[in-house]
Amino acid sequence: MDTVEPTVARPRRGGELWLLLVALGLGIGAFANVGLRTLDQLPENFYLYSGVLVVLGFGTHIVLRFRAPYADQVMLPIAIGLNGIGLAAIYRYDVSQRLRGSDSTLALGQVQMSALAVVMACVLIFVLRDHRVLRKFTYTAMIVGLLLVLLPLVPGLGTTINGAQIWINVAGFSFQPAEVAKIVLAIFFAGYLVTNRDTLALAGRKVLGLQLPRLRDLGPILLVWAASLGVLVFENDLGTSVLFFGLFVAMLYVATERISWVILGGGLLVAAGIFVATSIPHVQQRIEAWIHPFDQAIYDKSPGGSGQLVQGLFALANGGTFGTGWGNDYSRLVPFSYSDFIYTALGEQLGLTGLLGILIAYLILIERGMRTAIKVRDGFGKLLATGLAFTMALQLFVVVGGITRVIPLTGLTLPFIAQGGSSVLANWLVVALLLRISDAARRPRPSPSAARSRPEASPSTSNPWRPSTRPASPTSPAPRRSGSARPPQGRVRSVPAASRGRTTPRRSRRSSGRAARTTRTPR
Amino acid sequence: MNVPVRRLFTVALLMVLTLMVSTTIIQFFHADTLDADPRNKRATYDEYGRFRGPIVIAGDSVAVSNPVDDEYGYQRSYTDGELYAPITGYFSVVNGTSGMERAENDYLNGTADDLWLDRLTSLFTGAQPQGSSVELTIDPAAQKAAWDGLGDQRGAVVAIEPATGKVLALVSKPSYDPNDLATHDYDAANQAYQALVDPDNDQQPLINRALGGDQYPPGSTFKLVTSSAALESGDYDPDTVIPAPVTYTLPGTSTEMENYGGEICSPSGEMTLAAALQMSCNTAFAGLGVALGDDAMRDQSEAYWFDHDLSIPLPVTPSRYPPDDDADGSSPAKTALASIGQGDVRVTPLQMAMVSAAIANDGSLMSPYLVDTVRAPDLDVVEQTSPDELDRAISSTTADEMTDMMLSVVDDGTGTSAQIPGVEVAGKTGTAETGVQGDAPHAWFTSFAPADDPQVAVAVIVENGGSLGSEATGGRVAAPIAKAVMQAVIDR
Predict the structure, then answer these.
(1) Which residue numbers delimit the Penicillin binding protein A dimerisation domain (chain B) (predicted)?
(2) What ipTM was predicted for this assembly?
């Protein structure tokens, strides 16, 4: 070839390694600190737990080196760091229980679940070579997602814990299907929206300047709305219902770029909100506790009072600016300070400084997810990455906003930190998917020469779905095949029909075909 | 689709920023209000859950914090609880704190300003700040002698080292076991407390009879103050002959005052000041007080620290000389009654011990104190009390004359039962009418020894004559207890 080799991004994972060391240091240091402050010795199983964290961190790092060398370098360290800090906080709770004579081994369970979660994340990265494969399962995902959401209502399977019927019990293991459902539903939303975005965006009448969708396009949306309302009404789970609906509206907006959808979604949310706020006592109590938490009558009410909320505020206040330090807290006074209210336990021990650091860590993780969405070239990947990153943001907002009285309190878990197998597993799978998509986003587009030398290489050479990509029609492959010095822009780099067979796997071709059909919708 | 993704990220950014602001509002701006909320038990747990320094008497810890597996983390426990309860007080999750536990709380829990360096160190080392130990001036032998001497009788004993003001013994009976109040068992602690403060319980063990309570009329022990006033006036010396009639009619009234048991002080109707004190002649002192005048009496009382606040650092109720209010305060009849320690004079046993101590210490009244040393956990001395003169109560000459007069009381007067072989004991008895019809008088004795090198000054009160009831006099009931305490100190 007589062309200049383009500057190609190389797989760089050194930065991740360093950040991993910092994250592991933070987590393991916190863990050691808790033991030293409370028991004057390292926690029992300290080396085992720390070893597990180290192996998980570096193991995932190695898997990424081989299977997703271009993946984002910041996500894994943040997830490991948050997981480690959460483990320390849960161990702190165990110690406070043990010092009072009751047995508590939540930390052990959390280590086991974290190990399982990270291994499954690695398996996902290993097996799923191309995230677009998931698009094939769009409607399967819808059914699985709805089933997962409704599972806790099945008699004999669902269990009510602390008022919310969001658990299922299988063979002695309890599981919160909603946590996994959010991933499955994000896949469904991404697949559904990437196919129907134009219909949703363009068909329909204009009323008062707003492009209203056609009624028949509304079907799946109303289904989701009904499902999330069902979660609320029948499972008493305000948080999950807000999470699902918010996720869908956000993805709808990104797919259609129509603010009308946001307004419509917001309207439905408000309607649902007014309905539940006036008719469901459980929600009424939450709202009352949110507005007047310090009212003695509301504080004393149990269940449904503001006792936990207020005790959480006391914990945060006690932490102040710099916190009490690991192990010097009274977070045992806050019910569920290891799961739903772990934010207050961290706030008490690490203070405002520590919490702002943790919030910034989440913000970086969300930003990395969104950046991945912007960079990745296929619409399905964009939507999926956006959805997954935004669930993180929504979940964070619903949990922390509830605890800090921005919104009424709902039960959701703090990603990676809170105790709970389903939550840890689901969030590690989210990170695995984001890593997989980010690898596709950052992987250099092969120049034709590269494409020839590595025929199996790039998922990026596929399937433009935008109407604007249509100029790159199957009839215009010639200039590209002759090899241009500069890699062309994404939209004009549509895979030429002739080269398709050689450079992309079969499945891409199929989805490519579907995308092409979609784009033919009259504009 | 990149534009809406960017917008969505802006939304996410705003959401996280909102959380940062809301968290900051709670942790930074509302923290103080939330910390002070009565429903926030953290302050209580902080106070009760931290390792608290011990209270130490002669090298032994009488109040210690032991780690326990409950929500507080430490249990306060007391050795010889009843013996030392009027000093240590209690440290109770349910009932609050009292005594030394309250007075020295800042040192015991490690939050005193002087301890800032230790707190700073623990901030960096991460160790939990620890309380200091508080070492008391109490002499266990004297304390035990006073405790045993009182036996089952209600009353109090205070012993002071005259030269320094160190409190060597401080007993109040009946006492209580602070362990019963300090238990973390809410119901048990509450029940114990309710039983102690039950109004039907005339024992009222929580009242520190040595330092406060309802106080007592001092009876004839107050004649030490009257004598001091006379000698200080310059118009009298111990040999000055004063009137000592069989009965004394209170000026402006028709009330006749008699001597104890109606006895005749002197066939001649007059006697020396020294003899009057030795015999504790009421009619002589009533007349003497009126002759000196109410102002002189009050001035002398105040020089002995009547009507002054005092903290040792346990709070002490000021003893009272009747106020000079225009209505009827300074009528000669009241002065006459006050001069023999009746009427409206009220004293604490500590006050009477201070009178003896000032006389013993050449007229210099030292500030009484209970805390000798405060030591940080690393045994560094944080605070050491140095003796401090509270007031010059009487001149050195007066002190010498008073000492001689008090020696004769024990040698050959009303206080012979306080004699210690080989030791010169100076003392004064008192048998104080309570003013309650049918109640036996209180038996008093205050003394110091050895007279030439005073090591201890004591005041003893046995309420309502103790086991002897109306048969009791200060000499018979209280003096032997004082003797035992003095002996314990001298023999150490």
Answers:
(1) 52-134
(2) 0.83
